[in-house]
Amino acid sequence: MSQTDLKQRIVERFHEVNDDHPMTDADDVYVSAQFVALEELCAVKGREADAVRRLMLGGCMPLPGYLRSDGAEMVPADLFALVDEAGGADLLEDWFTAHWADPITGKAEWNAYLSGQYVCLRSVTPATIQRKDYLTSAIGAAANEPDTASEQWSRRLHALIDELDALEPAFTAYDRLRFGGPTSRDTCIDAMRARFPRP
């Protein structure tokens, strides 16, 4: 399969996962600051871009997080970190899913990882995925606790929010379109800080 065919298959698969929303100039600026073009990263890391595209299409590595308006496949700078840690792309799924005690949950997280939609984390690892899940649940539950007026509660809440803030990037308008609504930053960080100001 030619490079053109591989790139077109990536585009088609990306739109299957994310639907077909246009990227604005502001989206492009954000993505260019937060991510790197696949071909540029491969050149730096000594990898073959078409081989990586085949791994993406074969369900062995995640799809690009974004397709920039110029067609560049935008990926995280640490795209190959988990592959290296696992000992190779063929070992990545077993290594990744083993981080969850429940195999069904591990498989679901693997599929989510392959979608490329974990743009909600500055660095995507099993540990950061699990920590984000914990923090968003804890922040959501905190709003319903009986002692929301206490200073101790507020300190605990804002410690959780600050930790999540450190894990998550800013997001862009494109994300709110493809995810069909507000992001976890909108609901768990910005909205909670506005609703429960730091004392």
Element pattern in H and E: HHEHHEEHHHHHHH
Radius of gyration over C-alpha positions, nearest whole angstrom: 18 Å
Structural class: mainly alpha
- Average predicted local confidence, pLDDT: 96
Largest sheet: 3 strands, antiparallel
* Outline type: globular
Euclidean distance between termini CA atoms: 60 Å
Strand tally is: 3
Structure description:
This protein is mainly alpha-helical. The protein folds into 2 domains: about 1-100, no CATH class; about 120-199. Helix content is about 60%, strand content about 5%. It has helices spanning about 5-20, 25-35, 40-45, 50-55, 80-85, 90-95, 105-115, 125-140, 150-165, 175-180, 185-195; strands at about 35, 65, 75. Strand 2 (about 65) and strand 3 form a beta hairpin. The mean pLDDT is about 95.
